[in-house]
Design brief:
It comes from Microcella daejeonensis. The structure is a single chain. By secondary structure, this protein is mostly beta strands. The protein has a single domain, classed as BH3618-like, CATH 2.30.290. Strands 1-2-3-4-5-7-8 form a seven-stranded mixed barrel. Strand 3 and strand 4 form a beta hairpin. It is globular, with a radius of gyration of 14 Å. About 25% of the residues are buried.
Length: about 140
């Protein structure tokens, strides 16, 4: 599976992609196998190991202006990519009283072969609960 596309859009994905995380997602210990399923207006993440676990993800380019996190060499190496452009980057969405929010501090990074990682952007000032609104640039 190839995951390359213009910088302003997410790569075209099959309806379902098996992902193997390098370590469990934050708050979900033990599970490292998930299916990434394309759904309208976002991407849903379904756990293979725990069928009841369901997270919603979105491509931040459509909802967050000027979100351009920088991955470290170690974060890229963990999923076998050379540059940030070699991966699909998605953010976890959470419900909130005032509307959905996105965790911009810990995005999901996916390589073309299905390896994935939730990275923590230690040195970057990013919110954990950024309001989601249609992006001006996306």
């Amino acid at each position: 599976m190839t995951m390359t596309a213009p910088a302003s859009t997410a790569p075209a994905l099959p309806e379902r992609v098996a992902l193997r995380f390098t370590s469990p997602l934050l708050g979900l210990p033990g599970a490292t196998a998930y299916d990434l399923v394309v759904v309208p207006d976002g991407v849903g993440l379904f756990s293979l190991e725990s069928g009841g676990t369901r997270l919603f993800l979105v491509d931040p380019v459509h909802y967050v202006d000027d979100y351009r996190p920088r991955l470290t060499a170690e974060q890229r190496a963990a999923i076998g990519i050379d540059t940030d452009a070699d991966a699909l980057l998605l953010v976890v969405v959470a419900p909130d009283v005032d509307g959905p929010t996105a965790n911009l501090l810990a995005p999901i990074v996916i390589a073309g072969d299905g390896r994935a990682s939730q990275v923590l952007l230690d040195d970057q000032e990013m919110p954990v609960r950024a309001p989601l609104r249609p992006s001006v640039s996306g």
